[in-house]
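ESCALATION

Customer reports they have been waiting on this structure for their group meeting. Please prioritize. Original submission:
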Amino acid sequence: MSTFIPGPTYAEMLDPAILPAALRDKAEAARGDELNPANLFNITWRAPDHGIRHVVLPKELTGVKANIVVLVGHFFPSGSHKVGPAYSTLMEGELAGEIEPGKNTTIGPSTGNFGIGVAYVSRLKGYPAIVIMPEGMSAERYQRIRHYGGQLDLTPGSESDVILVLERTQHYLQDPRNKVLAQFELLPNYRFHRYVTGRSALEAAKPYGNGRVALFAAAPGSAGTLAAGDEIKAAFPECLVAALEPRECSTLFNDGRGTHRIEGIGDKMVTLIHNVLTTDYVVLIHDDDCVMGLELLERRQHDIEPFLGLPAGSLECFHGLFGVSGICNILGSIRMARFLNLGPDDNVVTIATDGFDRYPSVLADLERRCGPIPLGVIDKRFDEVFRAGSADDILDVRPQEQKERLFGYKQDVWTNFGYSLSYLEGMKSQSFWDEEFNKITEIDAKLAAARGGIEG
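Update from on-call: job pushed to the front of the queue and completed.
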């Protein structure tokens, strides 16, 4: 290709310390200038000190003995780890000669964070971007996409109506200049999370308990994040993976359908890139528990600290780090740790996809619906959210009949979007996923060659 392809390899996203010195210096200098293209080299879970950005929740908060380790996505460029899959999908398209600045427009089907990532990466790499989203998402999401120069195409409904987003995407495919960065179906999303998120999770857990990971819990939107579980299982085969979904839209649990308030998850389908072979449990979480949990941890920290027996200011370090889906992941981790009776040597790893900055309007809606929380019931509300959960909301999907049921859901959706039965059948073997993962070595070599000697 004649067009230079700026951006990091998968290995460099895992560990920017291996970047050529000139690129590493440019990336560090760009951190204060969000629209500087060198920020592509800051797409990583690592902080400037090279440690994985994470927090460990106080056990007074979780009420369980296990260590709950939360990877923090708020500090990625654009404010969410979804920028990683957006970049990876665009980068692989460029390497394949399918996408080129000045010729193509990127299309980002999304319910929010991936669309923000598409708009952001496209801005940095010189593409116009169109983000297709449901019309019922938070105002902050739309504002961020427009801030990056992305155009919005809004479809009817809310989070759980993402199938309409996929249908709208077909319209854009009629023009070959439009290139869809299809997070629900393209494997760069899987590759980024299995390699970068999975290995980052393993490193983050190492200092705690026995250094192993007993459980990885994440809510599937595109199901990309769940791919981290594949890499964790490669290191610790006994690790369990739990997929969390809204009780109001219990598709994986029992083919349920419905509307809910957990933006970024619960999309009424088994996505194409969801490796259901490595999903062990499905857990239902009430959507308003997540919204109320965010209110408690973000705005009522000082009210719940005395109730939990924590010193004043103990929860201040979590200010701004969590969004609604991050609280969903925390609640699912707590409930699974209790269900599995995990002990102090056991580590649970989960993800905070984004931060609070895109949810003030969601908490404003909570107050309109329910009113402010009186101080006298703060302990009751905390217990209802953080100590709730029933074994009836946890489904073991390891039996073969459960795998076949989930494969059936996948087939029902994706044959309608042009995927053959033989391709879908191939996904029933772990070798399919391992072969896709192993393409990273070749992709990284091609990208390094495409960058040429420009690093100096």
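Sent to customer with the following note: The chain has two domains: 54-78+189-396, 83-182.
Escalation resolved.
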